[in-house]
Amino acid sequence: MSSKPSSRSPDPSAPRIVVLGSLNMDLVLRVPHAPAAGETLTGHSIATIPGGKGANQAVSCAREGAQVRMIGCVGGDAHGQALRESLERDGIDTAALRTVDGEPTGTALILVEDGGQNRIVIIPGANARVEIDEAALREQLQGAAFLVTQFETPMDQVARAISVAHEAGCKVLLNPSPVQAIAEPLWSRIDTLVVNEIEAQTLCGQSADSPEEAALAGKALRAKGIARVVVTLGSRGAVAIDADGARHHPAPTVQAVDTTAAGDTFLGALAVALGEGQSFDEAVRLGIRAAALCIQQPGAQPSIPQCAAVLQSPLPPDWITL
Ligand code: RIB
């Protein structure tokens, strides 16, 4: 499977997706295990890899064939330039990506353990300087299938963007990560919410540790006014919750090398499939297949698969109605 980015122009009939979010240069340390407090550890390797939840989700949408526009900020430094060029190689429109001189580009320090699990610390840098131009955003959202956003840029600006999208009739796909409380008026402006088990628990106050619990948590979140909720469960797949109830979508069994950007890969594939008019369950299945390929490769953006590879990958087991 090759996920090498190609300099390409997206198909003009493909869904248009606007991503508001973070761009980070990931400083990735591969370690045998996460060090305990006071422990000094010798790691295996270090690498600098393009990442950031917003940028990763934009790349995932682009590699699934969508026309993607990225809204965000990078610093006026070499990392910012590298991240911009990396998106452009994937055919992503960076006209709304602002360079903030005097601010460092966002950085993520990522420890990846031998089992593929990661621990991430983010220094937001220029991501903290994102400001929404409401008139420009309204124009950018015209004809877009989704506004996709997360919480690695300032919450007040994310909230403004969600409200603008809602008023403009553009659906919002929110990945509230890193998780924080969602203001009450925003809930009903979200079309699709994608959360992992920890985020689900934080937002609704009930455990989402098993498919059954995730279904109940997802139903509680949906009751706040959202059409569709996905609770991702890592190697156990995901639970999709909508007006028809809850379904557990198991994941194929694969050997995880690095789980970084698995959630972002899932979300991009889900957004594009929904934008193409595929059913919610088919979109979730596609996201699971894309994420399963992602975790078999190291790094964030280099591990996000191209659409052709996803379509050639094994089908996951059938879903189970809960
Ligand atoms: O979701 C993975 C991403 O989280 C990493 O690329 C890192 O930059 C952080 O934003």
Could you explain the architecture of this structure?
The protein is an alpha/beta fold and 322 residues long. The chain has a single domain (16-23, 53-105, 126-321), classed as 3-Layer(aba) Sandwich (UDP-N-acetylmuramoyl-L-alanine:D-glutamate ligase). It is built from ten helices and 14 strands. The chain has helices at 53-63, 78-89, 134-140, 155-167, 184-187, 197-204, 211-222, 262-275, 280-294, 307-312, and strands at 16-20, 24-31, 45-51, 67-75, 97-100, 106-113, 118-123, 146-150, 171-175, 192-196, 228-232, 238-242, 245-249, 320-321. The strands form two sheets. It has a ten-stranded mixed beta sheet, with helices on both faces. Strands 3-2-6-7 form a four-stranded mixed beta sheet. Strand 8, helix 4 (155-167) and strand 9 form a beta-alpha-beta unit. Helix 6 (197-204) packs across helix 7 (211-222) and helix 8 packs antiparallel against helix 9. The chain starts with 15 loop residues before the first strand and ends with a strand. The model is unreliable at 1-6 (pLDDT under 50). The structure holds alpha-D-ribofuranose. The site of alpha-D-ribofuranose has 16 residues, from strand 2, helix 1, strand 7 and helix 8. Residues 22, 24, 26, 51-53, 56, 108, 120, 122, 152, 260-261, 263-264, 300 line the site of alpha-D-ribofuranose.
